Amino acid sequence: MVGAGMAGAEAAWQLAEAGLRVALVEMKPAEMSPAHQTPLLGELVCSNSLRSDDVVTPAGLLKHELRAAGSMVIACADANRVPAGAALAVERFGFGRAITTKLAMHPNIRLERRRCDDLPAGPVIVATGPLTAGKLGEVIRNELGGDRMYFYDAIAPIVSADSIDWNHAFRGSRWGKDMVTAEPNAAETAATDMFGGKETEGGDGGAGADGSGDYINCPLNKEQYEAFVAAVNGGRKVLPHAFEEPKYFEGCMPIEVMAERGEGTLRFGPMKPIGLRDPRTGRRPWAVVQLRPENQYLTAYNLVGFQTRLAYPEQQRIFQMVPGLANAEFLRFGSIHRNTYIDAPAKLGERFELRTRPHLRFAGLLTGVEGYIESCAMGLLCARMLIDELRGRPLNVPPPTTMMGGLYLHVTAPRVGPYRYAPTNSNYGLMPPLPLEPDGKYRKDNKKPRMSERAQRDFAAWLPTLLRA
Ligand SMILES: Cc1cc2nc3c(=O)[nH]c(=O)nc-3n(C[C@H](O)[C@H](O)[C@H](O)COP(=O)(O)OP(=O)(O)OC[C@H]3O[C@@H](n4cnc5c(N)ncnc54)[C@H](O)[C@@H]3O)c2cc1C
Description:
This protein is of the alpha+beta class. The chain folds into two domains: 6-148 and 343-466, FAD/NAD(P)-binding domain, CATH 3.50.50; 156-335, Elongation Factor Tu (Ef-tu), domain 3 (Beta Barrel). The chain is 29% helix and 15% strand. It contains 13 helices and 16 strands. The longest helix has 20 residues, at 447-466. Bound molecules: flavin-adenine dinucleotide. Flavin-adenine dinucleotide is lined by residues 2-8, 25-28, 33, 35-36, 45-47, 115-116, 127-134, 136, 241, 364-366, 371-372, 375.
């Protein structure tokens, strides 16, 4: 087990508790990443909050599942809780000490405090996180075949499909081309990483060719566009961390950097209206925000090319100025930060194993989930799958209707058509929609409580197979 952060600590514990002997390699304290500051295992690198503990929220639901699954990390969080309203916030040193003690004292765990610069032989789980240190990043990249590893997140916001106002929005792809017939956007499939400068996020216009279709378009007139650009320029931005060089590539430039370059820049970039006609006016809009399906259920859409460092409340305020998005429900906000993650759907198998070297598995943020508890959940699942395999048992995956199942599918489900894999946190867009009502329609009321109830029920039914000894 390499790395003892959120994912590695949980995975090592699960393996050890199942009776397997674990060598846990962690580089701290001899070497610290720019974000880690203590010798403790399971260190929270930033906020001391594990987000909401209300089971109706995505983060609360995931914690509920983790508790039921016997997560050691969540147990330590519960034991070190500090008052934070509906959130589960922890006293970070007590939390880290509790995890460190449990792992260090476990008779099946041998803790090795050193940096790992190569991939060990035998069954190994790598969970070295977004700031993987030393040569290991390079070694992993070589194992992946030289590409399919990203070093920067450029995440666009995602909104819930049923919160889009169809009085303003319309469906359609540029020049009327659709996703089924289109060839993958060459630039997008050639994407390597942000340092390679090949990344692109240009909507269905790509480099002038239509790369995909089935988009939702939110048209803006001139006044609306100008007001939008002014709001982006005036909006509060999150400053990069000291170790994050603000180094952007043309294909994934934050919208605020484009807006700063001049009033017309966005209109010639992600908001370009070419090839589109608003069916209400029969004319080409002045500018357009395009939304692309984020999941197979078509319940969540991302704002194409809208990666941003705008603060979350500012994103909500400013993006709701776009006609069609006035009441948009944001399932995930946009962000840009330093990260390291694998293009998991392309490279990893259904047990998080590298397809070309199945003894090598990955867990945590490296697999393309975002957040402490999400990383912990993937650590738990990866370890449980390894235990099953070593015991000759069949693969056991969580139901897709659960939060753990949604995250698992995000990481492992093969993608069709052009895509750029981006990390996700827990959100209801990862799950299939609720079934249709007898009248053939979807009920919009109380969607989250009903999805949460379904998830809790399905998780409880699945739990005995997860916890088998
Ligand atoms: C600056 C920053 C702030 C963040 N803030 C938040 C936040 O507020 N909330 C949130 O939910 N998420 C936050 N995240 C995301 C957060 O990192 C992940 O959610 C989570 O910690 C990832 O878990 P992990 O186990 O994959 O990696 P980590 O928790 O980072 O653990 C990786 C471990 O591997 C070790 N390691 C690295 N390289 C090697 C090596 N070569 N050899 C041996 N050991 C190695 C590290 O020392 C570390 O202990 C933040 C990330 C960063 C970079």
